[in-house]
Amino acid sequence: FSPEEVTVVFVLGGPGAGKGTQCENLTKDYGFVHLSAGDLLRAEQKREGSKYGELINNYIKDGLIVPMEVTIALLEQAMKEAMKEGKGSRFLIDGFPRKMDQAIKFEEVVVPSKLVLFFECPEEVMLKRLLKRGENSGRVDDNIESIRKRFVVFTETSMPVIDAYEKQDKVKKISCDQPVDQVYQHVKSIFDDLFS
Ligand code: UP5
Ligand code: MG
């Protein structure tokens, strides 16, 4: 992909910060294609004949980061499909990159990102949201043990990615400890400036 041809926005933030929720809104209003790395991994995990099913399930349950070869291949494939189907060439990549080597690799082999949205949210707020969602989400990682592990991995491994992009002046920070509509107004103001 060439940077003239496609636009990639990374959407990052802790577990339960509201990445998926806000991406859905952006998809409707700005014609971006929403690709959640977690959703792609969960779909691959369920796909009959996938050689990664068991591996993905184990990593997700423990809140660990799946080897990047798997995730990058799924993202690249989903981007190609979306473009072939005429869905557009502007992508919200949600929940990826979660580790520095993934960020470097993706930008090298796929395309450099234009912008990084960082959804900032206190842990206790995210915890409450995830436990509530866990009542009926069916996600193997929406339980207290897995959530604790996801928080540790986010702080230790994924925050440094955001810090690195901050040094490149690529990050727009959004406070997520507010109602969905209010958070979206802030996101919208950023997108109106850059993408309308
Ligand atoms: N909610 C949302 N916004 C709200 C608001 N403003 N006020 C009140 N409630 C709000 O939201 C979570 C819940 O909160 C929902 O019930 C929502 O209604 C409510 P959501 O929008 O789903 O938040 P999101 O940030 O998307 O949370 P998610 O749980 O999806 O975040 P994670 O980053 O933990 O999950 P993801 O699916 O990205 O990854 C899961 C696992 O996959 C990882 O732990 C890892 O094991 C693996 N993975 C990789 O290995 N590599 C990758 O690149 C990506 C994932
Ligand atoms: Mg999500």
**What is the percent of helical residues?**
55-70%
State the total count of DSSP E strands.
5
Instruction: Indicate the structural class.
Output: alpha/beta
Distance between the termini: 22 Å
Main sheet overview? 5 strands, parallel
**Element pattern in H and E:** EHEHHHEHEHHEH
Question: In percent terms, what proportion of residues is strand?
Answer: 5-15%
What is the count of DSSP helices, taking H or I runs of 4+ residues?
8
Any low-confidence stretches, pLDDT <50, length ≥5? none
Rg result? 16 Å
Shape, please? Answer: globular
Q: Which molecules other than protein and nucleic acid are bound?
A: P1-(adenosine-5'-P5-(uridine-5')pentaphosphate, magnesium ion
Strand order of the largest sheet: 2-3-1-4-5
What is the arithmetic mean of pLDDT? 97
Any overview of this molecule?
The structure is a single chain. The protein has 196 residues and is an alpha/beta fold. The chain contains eight helices and five strands. The chain is 56% helix and 14% strand. The protein is globular and about 40 Å long. It binds P1-(adenosine-5'-P5-(uridine-5')pentaphosphate (UP5) and magnesium ion (MG). Residues 13, 15-21, 36-38, 41, 59-60, 63-66, 71, 95-96, 98, 129, 133, 141, 150, 176, 178-180, 183 line the site of P1-(adenosine-5'-P5-(uridine-5')pentaphosphate.
Describe what is shown at a glance.
With 196 residues, the chain is an alpha/beta fold. It contains eight helices and five strands, in the order βαβαααβαβααβα.
Question: What's the structural blueprint in terms of helices and strands?
Answer:
Elements: E1 7-13, H1 19-30, E2 33-36, H2 37-46, H3 53-61, H4 68-84, E3 90-94, H5 100-109, E4 115-120, H6 123-134, H7 144-167, E5 171-175, H8 180-195
Parallel strand pairs: 1-3, 1-4, 2-3, 4-5
The structure holds P1-(adenosine-5'-P5-(uridine-5')pentaphosphate and magnesium ion.
